[in-house]
Predict the 3D structure of the following.
Amino acid sequence: MRWTIEDTPERAAFREQVRGWLRENLPAGWADAIESGDADKLDQARKSWDFFGWSRTIGMSGYGAPLWPKEYGGLSGEPWMQNITREELARYRLPTVGLNILGVGLAGPTLIAHGNEEQKKRYLQKILTSEEVWCQLFSEPGSGSDLASAGARATRSNGEYIINGQKVWTSIAQMSHFGMLLARTDPDVPKHDGLSYFIVDMKSPGVDIRPLKQITGSSEFNEVYFNDVRIPAENLVGVEGDGWRVARTTLMNERVALSGLSLDSAAFAGGTRKDPWALFVDSIPNREDGRVRQFIAKSYVEKEVKEITQFRANMARMSGAQPGPEGGVTKVYNAEFNKWRSNGIMNANGPAAVAWDHGDSDSENRAHAFLRARANSIEGGTSEILRTQMGERILGLPREPEVDKGIPWKEIKRS
Amino acid sequence: MRWTIEDTPERAAFREQVRGWLRENLPAGWADAIESGDADKLDQARKSWDFFGWSRTIGMSGYGAPLWPKEYGGLSGEPWMQNITREELARYRLPTVGLNILGVGLAGPTLIAHGNEEQKKRYLQKILTSEEVWCQLFSEPGSGSDLASAGARATRSNGEYIINGQKVWTSIAQMSHFGMLLARTDPDVPKHDGLSYFIVDMKSPGVDIRPLKQITGSSEFNEVYFNDVRIPAENLVGVEGDGWRVARTTLMNERVALSGLSLDSAAFAGGTRKDPWALFVDSIPNREDGRVRQFIAKSYVEKEVKEITQFRANMARMSGAQPGPEGGVTKVYNAEFNKWRSNGIMNANGPAAVAWDHGDSDSENRAHAFLRARANSIEGGTSEILRTQMGERILGLPREPEVDKGIPWKEIKRS
Amino acid sequence: MSTFGFTEEQNELRSTAARFLEEKSSSADVRRLMETSEGFDEATWKQIADLGWTGMAIPEEYGGVGFGFVELTVLMEEMGKKLFCAPYFSSVILATNAILNAGTEDQKKELLPGIADGTTRAALAFVEPSGKWEVDSAEVTANGGKISGTKSYVVDGATANLLIVSAKSGNGISLYVVDPDAEGVTRTALQTLDMTRKQAKIEFNNTPAKLLGEEGAGTAALQKTLEQAACLLSAEMVGGAQACLDASTTYAKERYQFGRPIGSFQAIKHKCANMLMEVEMARSAAYYAGWAAAEDPEELSLAASLAKAYCSDAFFHAAAENIQIHGGIGFTWEHDAHLYFRRAKSDEIYLGDATYHRELVAQKLGV
Amino acid sequence: MSTFGFTEEQNELRSTAARFLEEKSSSADVRRLMETSEGFDEATWKQIADLGWTGMAIPEEYGGVGFGFVELTVLMEEMGKKLFCAPYFSSVILATNAILNAGTEDQKKELLPGIADGTTRAALAFVEPSGKWEVDSAEVTANGGKISGTKSYVVDGATANLLIVSAKSGNGISLYVVDPDAEGVTRTALQTLDMTRKQAKIEFNNTPAKLLGEEGAGTAALQKTLEQAACLLSAEMVGGAQACLDASTTYAKERYQFGRPIGSFQAIKHKCANMLMEVEMARSAAYYAGWAAAEDPEELSLAASLAKAYCSDAFFHAAAENIQIHGGIGFTWEHDAHLYFRRAKSDEIYLGDATYHRELVAQKLGV
């Protein structure tokens, strides 16, 4: 995809400003290595790379979140500024965000939209610098697609909330300082009305984090148990009972993140040596076979249309559109495409794809990618749930009869 | 598929009996032509073929419907007898049923199950001989998938019912003597409870039959309008208000018919010259291309598994199983397969598939088959409705909430 | 999603086109014209010429409006939505680009003004009864200013008043300008699955033909012409697919079964969602192709095959689902679902189907 | 649908097998064994030998029970349902049939009784690091009673106490009997996606090898062996697919979201219905293949490819949908969904995937 849009003079000026800032603030040799395309030089520069230092630097610069208000570490900028900073960071093969993907991507926008002044002051700047890392505590074993049926209890008592219950599918819980917690403050009202949204200190007594092993064999996620965990009342975001509305801001931003609109970390990992497409083609044997060629070409076509669509969505975003349900379109497409493609790579490699020498990392990675892809259509909203949302929110199709509508949460049938 | 089951002695004897009857009753030269495999002889025999005469002959013999009671023209036989007669008829490239596919396949079983003694005596034998041809009057413009919501009214008055309304998708309405009519006798009760099932004389005043042109350009079906059509009360099948239960017998038998379990007419049409598979392969150019070979081979595989499954189901039927919801499995499979395959044939033929010389009947037939196939997943129950039934009736999955449950028919929302 | 990448002027063109086509290309219009042998309405054709559509991408020095492929993308998408019956794809897209790509300056000045003002309706005869889309598969021969042989699948070939024909001589493939009324020309209308777009077989028997541009330069010029046409046919397919999605969505909201709109059932809702997804992706591919045709000559070839591959499948799928969602009514002649379905199949196959273009993608990527 | 075509004795065998496996091949058993390097339980292996399973299709004169492929079909289907961890496919299916197809009378008498009574666990080494399934692609060489070269993807190759190896000499491909403890044999366990079925790479360096049957007759014997194995692997896949369908259906009834069981939503219900349809079709293919292996030598080859093509896709699809229907829980290590998914991918690829077998179908049909 070579579609580019010429900068207006205003945008060109901003781009120059970002670029100038980058050249000044990057580790020695980095800008050089990129601009000259010298992979060895970049490897050298990477060796002396201080990830935490960089996170602080960009976090303080405002370029990490141009849309955020100036007083909380952003630039109070326009949507197009975000695109330009991302493009420039990608050009220099740098991640926009450090460790704190969920903090910057989800917690920040949620606090900006629904937090009070104290909360914004307390948390936002440290999110940007990755000094305080955040995780998300929404899903529960019994509440997956139906997030609003979450049952973790938050009971108010003497200016505190006491939390009991279990969350699951929590990434980077161990490394996190704070969590975005959705918990039930009132079980006697319909499910959407009895939820509240909290900031929880992950180091609080009673927070028990257990790695959850997935089908890949790795433990990318955790289960988090809450046993009488105390949260001060000032950590309530928005008002009690209004947690679902707050959570939806988080979810919309999550969908955008998962729809592939901010894949800059891939660019960072990719390095300058070989682009991902060339790596993909190299991984396929028998490329002279017409059937294999169809697979390769279809992969290209699907990848391209996805990227072009993301580009179009990004451009729309530049004109100021808020993330809406159409993030679901690319999210579902991405998921189904990635499952299809990773499976095709396996078949193309025949028996070598399913049995390999111990320590053969190419084969391990291929198998891992194949297994990992299955989660793409589950995490962050199943493809089925998102298709329903696309049908209802974009196409305006009527909803299904809701059997739990208007029923107190505690009386809703559950497994 | 070469799977065969050896006959038990009892079955072998019956087979011999059928074969002997056929040899005696077939037109001159026919049995010879088949047994010698001489296509020209068969063509000769066909020229002097008296279709109506044959319908009468087989209809009187009992072999047309071995399962039907003897007193109504059948053999009071076992299910395996039906399989054997069908196999032998197919072997001699003869249709089991004459014109009266719906009469023998649907009306007969329904009357046997739900008709009274007078009705059975009056109608069954003439169904078998095709002297009286039947059609089905269930679907309406506003009631397709939801057949039980049919709105054609039947009002009782002086020992008669007066019918008003419209039916649609009626095959061979013009040629039919009688119709199986589902009509609403009570709009004030829930939809399933207010239906009744009638035998309607298609020559009655007020029956207006209009051919319905389909996307193929031909008019295989009709719309049938009823304007104050009078039906004597003795033509009610079962009791008033119990029509849905009666109709379900018809529908189950319809699904079996459409699932490809009785494709004997294809064998009849096919002749001895070339089998359908060879004709299919011949219709595909570029057979050396690996991608085209995949299409051909997949067509073979899918056709075979379908036929083997039908064979298994037939064998199960021989042990006496009644047609149940599993007919839907092969019906859906058939429909999706036929759509997929007829589309693939088009692509394989490139521009010649979409533009051809006037009068080029091969191309016309290919295009017609392609268009006609789209109805396969609609007629006799859409693939969506049948998947729901498979899920609920075979797998025992729970039903969806029914918003029209228990509501008087007249108050149900409709388009 | 938004229709990114268009100027206000282009958006205005889209609105005008939509309004015009709403009025002039109703279902009744389409059905009336598809039953005629010429397949279009002279008066409407005159009107779109007056609107500048027939000269939209023809440079001003050749009598055109001087816009480009992005404007053609807009028009083709809108025409595709309404199955507009006119020799637009044949004359304004295929033949015009062949002349622009192959013709000499003088020939452009001679031939293009007529196309721009609508008086010339040209057709491009490049494929033959073999049905091969490769431009160098031409077997029609050119010799001493005469051509002989048979072309087929010529869009609007029976009604065009100017023919551009590919033929081979000792120097390879060249394009020729042929008067359809010249001696030795026999035109036979074909029966088409898509009745809204006519095709013809054309036999040449020692027919006088004027070389268009240089002898032997036909392969490159024709190749580029077909790539440009693939981009624009993709836009037409996006319009058609969108129309199917719109029809399905509307029907799914209106049609009640089991006491509720069928669009409230997941089976139907998810079909519509998948259509939406594919239509959006197809739109991306077609807009990108239109942009490449206009702005990026190096990218044109790949973008054209990419768009043709994706949009062919997406439109066919949308048209097929549209019938299924409509159920029985979608299977009637009176409902428009089959007209889109026929167009989808025809567009899918024309210029090569998705399988064909994926192989081209692989080649163009050097796989 | 019914399980047509089995005798009462065969149905009884199925019930016994199901009961035995229910007890001996629980999820906990499978998980325990898959973490071991040998991958099976000696005691259980002894028990199935006592039940006659290891000699099920070995003629009585060679120490077996004397049944045939239909009985093996039944057992493989039931084992597939429970992911039974044992060298059954390797020893009782692959190696046994290689010996039956290639061996001399004396060799059968020598080698088969040990397999039948379970003391011999044989493995068939026929594919090499190239990963080609064609039997004549062997590059391991045989010369003067010694073989050299590398085999790979040998099921249970690291634990077998008898190896049957294909190798080429001047007279073509032959099969050889090799003692895994002989000199020059190096066995290396491979890491496998499907941890419930082990594979190994085996290097031979001037290893003594006894010719099995006639020299040069290996191609035909091996071909037939792989066709028989494809039939039975298809039966295993049907069992696996059925287990996935069962798990999905059960979960869809039990799991509530939005106040109702997820199986009441069409999105889930229709997925289950599609799985049911494909499982039924796969069952037809596998039973037919089992019948052909038992009864119709002329049909075996085509039936084997037909079944392998269909069942490979059906099992993979069922295993993938099973994860999706289970949502997050289906993506955990603790849930068995991934064990079936891994098996499905491995079975799909082993002996050639659906694409490979469809090409064979085309060849066998003379297309």
